[in-house]
Amino acid sequence: MTQTATDYRKYLEPRTLARIHSLDLRARLIVEGLMTGMHRSPYQGISIEFAQHRPYVPGDDIRHVDWKVFGKTDKIYLKQYLEETNLHLICVVDCSESMGFSSIDLGPDRWSKFDCATSIAAALSYLAIQQQDSVGLATFDTELKHYIKPSNTPAQWKIITRELTLVPKLKKTGTGRILDQLAEKLNHRSLIVLLSDFFDDFDSIKMGLRHLRYKKHEIMAFQVMDPQEIDFPFQDTTLFKGLEEAGELLTEPRSLREGYLKELEDFTASLRKLCRGMHIDFTRMNSGDPLDVSLSGFLATRSASIK
Amino acid sequence: MTNFPLAIYFLTWSFVVAGACLTAIPIIIHLLNRRRFKTVTWAAMEFLLRAMRKNRRRLKFEQWLLLATRCLLVALLGLALARPLGCENPALAAFGHHTALNVFIIDNSYSAAYSTGRADAKTHLDQAKKLVTEMLSRAQSGGESVVLITASRPATTSMEPQIDLEAARQAVGHIEQSWGATDLRHAFELALDVARRNDKIPDKNLFIITDATRSAWEGADGASLKQLGPELAGEFKSIQHFNLSSSQPQWNGAIADIKPGDNLVSSKFPAEFRADVRGFFPGVDPGHEVSLQWTLDDQPIGKTTASFKLSGATKPQRLANVAFATGGPHVLKATLLDNGDHLPVDNIRRRIVDVASELKVLIVEGKRGIDPEQSSAHYLMPALAGHRDVVPGKPASSDSSFSPEVITDLELGNKVLGDYSAVILAGVGQISSTESDALTKFVQQGGTLLFFMGDAVNKDNYNTMLFKRNRLLPGELVKVMSVGVNEHEYSFDFNPKSVVHPLLKDFANVNSGLDRVPVRSYWQIDIPPDSSAEKVLNYIPTNPKAPADPAITAQTIGQGRVLFVTTTGNLDWTDFPQKPAFLEVVQSMLVGSIRTGDWWMNRVVGEHLSIPSSVRMTTTPVLSDSEGGLIVVSPPEPDAGAVLADAKKADADHGMWRSLYHTEPLVKPGLYTLTLGERKVPIAVNVPAADEADVTTISNDAIRHDLGDITMAMLGPELATAGSSAQDANDFSWWTMVLVLALVGFECFIAMRFGHYRRSEVVTPGAGSPALGAKGAM
Q1: What are phi and psi of B181, to 5 degrees?
Q2: How far apart are CA B741 and CA A183, in angstroms?
Q3: Residue A282 phi/psi, 5° resolution?
Q4: Which of B36, B43, B55 is closest, CB to CB, to A101?
Q5: d(Cα B366, Cα B289) in Å, to the nearest integer?
Q6: Is the Cβ of A251 closer than 8 Å to some Cβ of chain B?
Q7: Contact check, Cβ <8 Å, A247/B43
Q8: Nearest residue of chain A to residue B54 (CA atoms)
Q9: Maximum CA pair distance of chain B?
Q10: Beta strand B238-243 with B713-715: parallel, antiparallel or unpaired?
Q11: What is the rounded CA–CA span in Å between residue A179 and residue A204?
């Protein structure tokens, strides 16, 4: 098996994909373009082509139940349509040095926050392409490193995953400025999935998000955190060497834990409050938690919110 | 108002030093922890730095507080283990010192029974016990070392220091009133021995608690005490004397002794006794009026004597014409009436008088002639037998106390000498070693041995067997001195008007003719300078410049006496036996020398009762005191001494060995009863009044002087008067330990509060996430 094939499969972990497939991806807002099938569209009745039936599973919208089939067979099936949508999903992945932090040691491999973020991006991209949605990708650190325009071609997903695999992560973060640049680049209203630890200046992040929202983009923000960053479990005297040129600190972590957690919670609370104010879905993800659980929960929440 | 202790002492200074040194440990750990750290690459540095900036001052304060608490904790722990003591009186603070040895000498002699009239301590001993108990109560248990020594029959409760103060207090409570004399010399020697045994203990304190009586401090051992004082000062860091009497005036009257007028008390003639009554008064003798009551076998003798003045110069009170109807032991008791002193125990004294009804005398005849007058014992027999009245149908009676028996020298080895009061060797030629040993044993146990010389006497045999072997002779026989033809006979150097030997006291001022006795020959003897022999009578020297040769000598050996006459007991060498004085001289010498054998029945508290082997027993003896309590009487230990072993051997050789029984020292005064099968013998045990009755007190300066003017603290009978208070020797270690425990709690609290503790639960990242599982599967 080649390394590339291995990388693709890494983002197609069956358990993660199966759960997300059962819940479907639904856009919360009506974006510009055609919305058919499961996506609610202001232009209903256009280009509806029946594709197949599938059995009903709990949680499915009963409005798509084929009652005729139910009347004949006494079994509940849903009608599915071969519909392409003009939803643009843009995955914006932070690939700064801080995203490379990892406390999870799996032998030869390490599971960093960046690994977690790229997995989420890949999974969402795959889902979107499966639904004929257009998917694009932006990676950044201090600058916008790569930008792949949205496309719904089958090859797009491979391009995206390759790009996520090759991204270096050695620099500082400039989230606010990058979001500004993205806002200028994107012409269509898009669903932007922002994957970052947001270890950046709060005001610049605020400015960037506001800019995107001003352009009517829908934003889903994932704050990816390492378990050690969340719990700060250190005991002995420790020399903390900061990433992204943040300096060093020799301290007694037991005595500093309370203050650190408070600072982190304050920042997260501010971020959550900011997102809520801008109607942005915000989720803090623990890179140590199962990925599918986080995504399923998030998508279920979104699905419920747009019905 | 509570006085704060002025002096602080630490029981173990090493713990103080250790605590001070170990205080550095928390600092060292802190510094080491600063040097030993993990390095973590950290992403969320901004939050960490921000938390650090906000809490920098608080964190520093917490760390300093924690470090200071831990340092203080270690230091206080060291102090607590060092056991700090606070005291107003530094001298008393030394008591209770962990590394100090505290030796108490408590005077429990019979003078300590002096009634003081205190409400809570009737006698000096009660006050001494109370005093020591209080001192022990002030010390803290678990560290102090205590040795108790009683001054009468000096003995320690234990030679090893006791650290159990409760046990020491109980031991003090169990100290009994002794009725013996104070023996400070042995008590001090014992204290020195204890101090030297515990030479590793740096500080030793000696506490002497006595009634400061003259008899205790300025008795026979005065010179020894003066020598011991500096030695005590050298061994003990501090010496303190507690004066139970406060040197206040004390007085006492006592009967110090009862003595018979003569050694021999016989049922044949009345006896005379003298009671030595003494009064001891401080300062001017007031002449206290008292009277004396005599009883014989619990029956009053005559009337109570008229009142006489009790003083230090009271003459002995005589009891004359005491007639004993029967022989054997009788109990004579004198009681001092109207005394009113505070020490009644010595107002009564008993004397067991072993009355002789018949004194058996064995005469060993060395020369037997065809003519009875030529026999060496011819004149001795009538001299001792006296005049006999023969009444038909009745046993012959005699006016003499002696019952003589004549044997030949060949029979001497077959006789049981213990059956006789005296043995006379009249011109015996040779003495075997066995006979010499038997005679020695006989004398040592109280018998009287009288030698007369003669032609048959073998000089070398006598010198070897009797002088060199057993010292029965006063000196070596040198040569026979004989007068030549036409020379004047030798005569005794006797002047009835000059001082005469006690054995010849009946010849004083009497024209007895003793100074005119002609002696033709005699054995010259060489008395060594170290000999204890007394010259009873000498010959007038032929050369005025030459020393006079002894004619009669007397020496005491053991309990008995040896009399040596250098000429013959018949007419071979002298005409003395024909003289009337001969009878009286022989009888006077025997009466003055023979002991009735009651010496072992009259004991003083503290002495053993030793039953001589001459006492006939049909069963194991049983001794009971005046209250009926049984006292163990047992044979001596096998290793009781070489002399005893030799004596046993000698007895065994004669086939007459009997057990010699003895007791432990007798502790109570009174009339004891010794049961010897069917026979009961009274035993009188008196207090040692001669040594202890003088209860007049001496000053503290005098006591210090008696101990060689050493440095010592002189205190009173009450602990309070020593300037001490309840805080003396206050042990602060418990309070320090409480503080340590409080600090431990405080340290735990602030460590938890400040987060300086290890959490039991350390958050570990979930290892079972689906994403990670998928990654691991690839």
Answers
A1: -90, 160
A2: 67
A3: -120, 130
A4: B43
A5: 60
A6: yes
A7: no
A8: A259
A9: 158
A10: parallel
A11: 9
Interface of A with B in 265-304 (CB under 8 A): 267, 286-293
End-to-end CA distance of chain B: 86
Residues in a beta bridge with B681: B674
User: Would you state the structure tokens that stand for residue B321, as one six-digit string?
Assistant: 């014409």
Mind telling me how many Å the CA of A301 is from chain B's nearest CA?
20
Tokens of A242: 């900061």
Asked whether this complex has an ipTM greater than 0.90, the answer is no
Please measure the distance between the N-terminal and C-terminal CA atoms of chain A and give it in whole angstroms.
43
Which residues, in sequence order, are bridge partners of residue A140? A94, A144
Q: Find chain B residues with C-beta within 8 A of A255's C-beta.
A: 55, 59, 62-63, 754-756
Tokens of B452: 């007369």
Check: CB of residue A151 under 8 Å from CB of residue A119: no
Q: Nearest CA to CA, how far is B73 from chain A (Å)?
A: 21
Q: Which two tokens stand for residue B176?
A: 């009994």
Residue B284 tokens, joined? 């001017």
Helix, strand or coil for residue B684?
A: strand
pLDDT in tens, A139-196: 888 888 888 988 888 788 778 878 877 655 567 777 888 888 888 888 888 888 899 9
CB B445 within 8 A of CB B556: no
Tell me the pairing of strands B633-634 and B661-663: antiparallel
The four Cα atoms B114, B115, B120, B121 give a dihedral, to 10 degrees, of: 10
* Cross-strand partners of B288: B310
A229 touches chain B (CB under 8 A): yes
User: Where does residue B302 fall: left (phi above 0), alpha (psi -120 to 50 degrees), or beta otherwise?
Assistant: left
Which helix (H) or strand (E) segment is B294 a member of?
A: strand B288-296
Measured distance CA(A50)–CA(B424) in Å, rounded = 164
**B30, B35, B45: best to mutate for the A interface, most A CBs within 10 A:** B45
Q: Which two tokens stand for residue A177?
A: 């400025």
Query: What is the pTM for the complete model shown?
Result: 0.53
Nearest to B242 by CA among B343, B91, B351, B122: B91
| Chain A environment of B775 (Cβ under 8 Å) | 10, 106, 109, 111, 115
What's the confidence (pLDDT) of residue B284?
63
Mean pLDDT to the nearest integer, B358-378: 84
Minimum Cα–Cα distance from A268: chain B residue: B47
Per-residue exposure over B426-460, b if at least 16 CB sit within 10 Å of its own CB, e if not: bbbeebeeebbbbbbbbbbbbbbbbbbbbeebeee
What Cα–Cα distance (Å) separates residue B470 from each residue in B443, B466, B475, B646?
A: 11, 6, 11, 12
Smallest CA-to-CA distance from B128 within B771, B715, B746 is with: B715
Any bridge partners for residue A192, and if so which? A90, A219
Q: What is the Cα gyration radius of chain A?
A: 21
Residue with tokens 């040198």: B478
From the CA of A272, how many Å to the nearest CA of chain B? Answer: 17
Evaluate the CA torsion angle B184, B188, B193, B195 in order and state its sign. positive
Q: Torsions phi, psi of A15, nearest 5?
A: -65, -40
Q: How far is CA B202 from CA B15, B94, B96, B238, B522, in A?
A: 16, 12, 13, 12, 70
B582: burial class by Cβ within 10 Å (0-12, 13-18, 19+)? buried
pLDDT, one tens digit per residue, over A181-230 is: 888 888 888 888 899 989 888 898 999 999 988 888 888 898 999 988 99
Q: Which residues pair with residue B448 across a beta bridge?
A: B422, B561
| Residues B183, B624: Cα–Cα separation, whole Å | 27
**How far out from the chain centre does Cα B50 lie?**
89
Six token digits for residue B664: 């432990």
Q: Enumerate the residues of chain B whose CB falls inside 8 A of the CB of residue A202.
A: none
